[in-house]
Amino acid sequence: MRSRRSRRPFMIIGIAPGQAPKAEERDAFARRVFNTAPGIKDVKIIRAEPLRMGRASGYEIVAEAKDLKSDIEVTTVQWLRFGSTGYMQMLGIARRTAWNDAFTKMRAIRDGIDSQ
């Protein structure tokens, strides 16, 4: 049976407590968090950069990878949004062939989450 992940784009969103890293530490922090992403292998980071999400500081990583079980080529995005008492992680994965449409929808989800 084929993995559900290999057929449809999906997102995982979670909140972690703790002090947000200083601006100069965010790249290394975001990469460490990204390295815990489940279900992918052969990761090649395409882009890693700070960004604003509304009024909050954030960090984006986009990478190409393969699904761990099916070897299907996927693209993945991780957004971290930093707050005063922790951070929110948003991780999205889609088949590479469906990436452009999936990424647009994932950004809409990201931007629709209110930080209040």
Describe the structure.
By secondary structure, the chain is α+β, with helices and mostly antiparallel strands. Helix content is 20%, strand content 47%. The chain contains two helices and five strands. It has helices at 26-34, 99-112, and strands spanning 10-17, 40-53, 56-67, 73-82, 86-95. It has a five-stranded antiparallel beta sheet with strand order 1-5-4-3-2, sandwiched between helices. A hairpin with a 5-residue loop joins strand 3 (56-67) and strand 4 (73-82). The longest helix is centred in the C-terminal third of the chain and has 14 residues, at 99-112. The termini are far apart. The model is unreliable at 1-5 (pLDDT under 50).
Features:
alpha+beta, 5-stranded antiparallel sheet, 47% strand, 116 residues, 5 strands, disordered N terminus
Report a brief summary of the structure.
With 116 residues, the protein is α+β, with helices and mostly antiparallel strands.
Number of helices: 2
Q: Which structural class should the secondary elements be placed in?
A: alpha+beta
Fraction of residues in helix: 10-25%
How many extended strands? 5
Distance from N terminus to C terminus (CA atoms, Å) equals 41 Å
Beta fraction of the residues?
over 45%
Sheet with most strands: 5 strands, antiparallel
List the topology elements.
Layout: E1 10-17, H1 26-34, E2 40-53, E3 56-67, E4 73-82, E5 86-95, H2 99-112
Antiparallel strand pairs: 1-5, 2-3, 3-4, 4-5
